[in-house]
Amino acid sequence: MSCDTHHDHTHKHGPDCGHTQIEHDGHVDFLHDGHLHHPHQSHIDEHQIEVTDKNPDDCNHHNCAGHDADHVHGPDCGHEAVPHGEHTDYLVDGHLHHPHGDHCDNHGPVKVIG
User: Fold this and answer.
1) 36 domain residue, yes or no
2) Mean of the pLDDT values across residues 56-61?
3) Containing domain of residue 110, as a range?
4) Of 40, 20, 45, 42, nearest to 30 (Cα)?
C-alpha cells in the first residue's frame, strides 16, 4: 500500500499535541488545518474519511442543534474541516456537516477520542 505523504511536516502528533483525534479505519488520525494526519513510520500520511453507508455524501437537509440555522461553514467558522471523499465537511457534535446550498447535509458520525 502506498502512502499519500504530507511533506515537510515537523509537528509531532500524539495524545497531548492539541489536535482533535479521530478514530479512523482502526487507528487514530489527527485533524490539523483541514487535513487528517496519521503518523506512519518516519512520516505523516494524509487520510480522508471514505464515502460509505456510514459516512454518505448524499443530500439530506440536516437540521442540527449543533449550530444556529443561519450558520455558514467555511474557514474560521469555528468548526474543524474534515476531508471526506472528494470534498470537505465540518465536524459538529461528533458528525460531519456538509454545506450544500442553503442547508447542511449530515454525512455521518465520526468518533472523536478524548
Assistant:
1) yes
2) 94
3) 16-114
4) 20
